[in-house]
Every structure is written in C-alpha cells, then in structure tokens.
Design a protein that fits this description.
There is one protein chain. By secondary structure, the chain is an alpha+beta fold. It is built from 26 helices and 8 strands. A hairpin with a 2-residue loop joins β1 and β2.
Amino acid sequence: MENNILESAEKDGLESILDSWGFSYILKTLKDESITLERLRYLEEQDLTYLFRERKLGEKVEFRFKLQQWKIANGYSDVKACDTISVDMTFLEDMENSQYLNCSQSTSSFSKVINDPNGYRGSINIQSVLGSHPNGYYVNQTYKETGKLNDAARKILIDSIVTWHLRHKIKLGRKEFEHISIKIEETFNDDKAIYFNLIGSRPSGRLYDKYYNTTKRLKRTGEFGYEKSNISGESPKADISNCGEETEIAKAQDWLKIFTEPWIDVQENWRKCFKKRRQEILSTNGTQNKIFEVLQNWKLFSHSLGYNLIQIDFSYLHPHSTSIVDKWKTFNLKIIPLLKTKLTDPAHLQQLETIKSQEKGSEQIIALLLHVLLRPTIKRKANTARKIYRSTIKDSQMSFILHVVTANDVENCLNKLKTSLYDRGETLQPIIIAVGYNLCDAKFYVYFDEIKYEMPCFLSAFDTCFKTFHVLHLKYPSDSLEFWLFVQKYFYSINLEGDRASPNVLCLINDLK
C-alpha cells in the first residue's frame, strides 16, 4: 500500500532527495509528520529517533549520514551537532589509543591540565582530531575535490580542534595556537592567519576566537574549569596508573555531564557508567531528597529521550526478564473472560463493554480494571488525623495513571494529588499521565520528580513507568502495591527477595496460566 502511495505522489524536491538517498520508502512517514523540504534541514537527533522508532537502527544511522552530507553541501552546516558552543556537541569518547596523547598524558575525570607545551607541540595529529568529529570526513573530502577548504569545511575543522581539546582538558596558549595553525597550513594549504594571527600583542583568528568564546561560556555555566597544573610538568603517579576501568568510567561520566548527542554516543557512555550510577542509587535507599541528588548528578535522566536510558539500566538489572509489550497480547485474550466473571460493579462492567466497541484504548481500560481485582489491602496511619486509612480502588488507580483533559490541567492536578498523598503519609512516585478528553485516545507521559517523558503509546508508558521504579530503586506506591507486584511477577517474571505478594496477586497469576 505504501508503495502505491509513493508511486502516485507528485514528484517534488523532497521526494527527489529521498530517492537519491535510497530512502523513498519513508516519504509517507515524513509527510505524515508535515516534514517538508524546507523543514528537512532542521531535523535533529531526537527527531530522527522518533521518525525511525519502528525501523532498524542501521537505517537511522545511514539516513543521518546522508542528511549531514546534504546539510553541509547546501550550506546548512550551522547545526547543533556541529557547533562546539552548543552543549550538544559530540566528542570522541575514547582517545586513549590516539596518536595525539599517550596514556601517561591523559588524566582521570578532567582533573588535571596538560601543561607540557614542548611535548604537546610535537604530537598533534590533525587527522586524528578530524576523526573524532561526526562530519570530519567533509574537510578531507572538500580538500581532495577542490584543493582548498571552504567556510563550511573550516568551521568543521575548527569545531573538531576545539572540541578535542575541551574533551581532554588541554589548555591552549599562544604557542599551541601557532603550532596548530602551522599544521593546518601544511595539511590543507590554508593560510594559517585565518586560524591564528598575532598582531602586536593582540591575538586573533577564527580558531583562537572559537576556543576562548567556548571556554568562557562553559566556565560561566560551571561545566568546565581548569585546576592548577603540576609545576614540574610531570603527571602524578596516580594519573599514570589510572588508565583502567575507573578512568574510562570517569571520562564517560564527564562526557555525559556536558553533551547530549549524538544519541548513540550518549547510550554507549551511559552503559560504561552503570556500576557507578547503580552504587549511587542504592546508597539513597529510595529517599526522596537523595534520589533528587542522583538525578542532578545524572542529568540525562531528564532528557526527552531519557526513557531509553531507563531501558538500558533495567536491562542490566534484569537481563532475563520478560516484557509487558511481548506478553500483553496473550494476557489480553485471557483477562477479558476472567474480568467478565469477577467484576460486579455496573460501572466496571460498562467499561469492559466499551472495549468491544472501540478500535483502540483497550490496554488502558484493562489496566485500570486490574486494580479492581487487585484492590489495596494495606492499612496505615494518616499524617493529618489520628485514624487508620485504607486505600480504595480509586486511590490505587490514581497512583497508577492521572487522567487530565488538557495539558494546562497537569500541574494543578499533580499538586492536588501530591497534597492528598502527603495527608495520607505518602509521596508521589513514578506515574503515568494521560492528556486528552477520552482516555482511549489520549497522549501518554511518564512523570517523576519534575521529569516527564512523552511516550508513543500507553504500553510503552506502562513499561517505562514500571522500569523507573527498579532503575531508581523506588518503592511501589502503597495505594497500588498489589497491582505493581502483579505486573512485576506476571509480565516481567521478576521475583525478588522480600516480595510479599498477597493471595489476590498469587490467585490472579494462577488463573492466568
């Protein structure tokens, strides 16, 4: 069907470009999202992640490469991923094997400045630096084809040099700028004065200006700073020996503190830091204010694609677990007949009947009806009254999903829920937010501690919400403890020491076998 649509589509600039890239099959996807030829140049990493969410990673990688080439060739090179001033700049995560520096010169966690200009000036390798930049190939390609560099190539070259030095925290002085500009002239036959020029006592040049403007900005935001170097110019013994796993983890964490793309590099560096991050999380023991500190240390949790990082950490915690997404179809066939026999309230039975008449939205209705079968059993003392409080089915459902009509209602409803929970001695835990008049066609988000992930569908929100509890070592809400224990054991096949599943949970699991 998609091919027929493409064949009948009018040939335009966007279609021609996609044809030349070998990606004509995604024309309909782009048009469905109102991506025009004009808007194509504004696509960024997170946009590609969304557009290729149902396709293979290799397709996305190839499309990104083609897109970058097209942007540069058409003068659209002022992209965040190619701009060092942006915090989103990409860096080469591991240069230990580079010809640029040997292990004894590199440092852990950006903790020292390399202050050995004589040794440094003899070891710079322009090609190694270009290799660390996602568009570095364009510089060599331009020089090979035209015998000179254009402004786009110069910009990428300067970005490459500046980002590499910031990544390795190498402080550049006038002698280093002079040396680099000479190397550029030797390599690309480009006037060194373009990059660094000393007129009297005042230095200038594009490379010089870019470096100092960038470091000034990063220092001002507290993301970058130099410590005093060793006067002798020799690296301390600790720096020489610390070239193992701890150094790699420290480098990866420092990278993550500054940069947010390319997303593939984010994920790889995130994986390297799992053990350290897990130790920090476990030390909080689920305490709210300490969890906040962890989220501050690992700020990419709050990125719009942070749910991917939740998935990564969960896969390390429970590598053999099953998934709600994989098991839902079979579960759906079994649970509906079971609900028909167990539900007695007319309102609940009416909700069950709506599943038959609606094309979508059955997942969220069934999930809410599960709270009826897994009604709360815990009693506890409230904060504001000397009485025992017993959670209701509605409390259980509200701690799982908060349904609002418009996005403007979210903050107000969250504040009301937080107040209600506090009065009962509880705090707000990870929760799904549904925005829309009808729950069946709402937009879904996962919310926790001011972090909000927009999810493509209800099941993906359900999955991410559950995994957030485990990744951040949080307790299930008391109001929906039975429900979440069922989800954990039935959908994910996770059985933990200390689990106290009630007879309701065990019976429902048995009934679904």
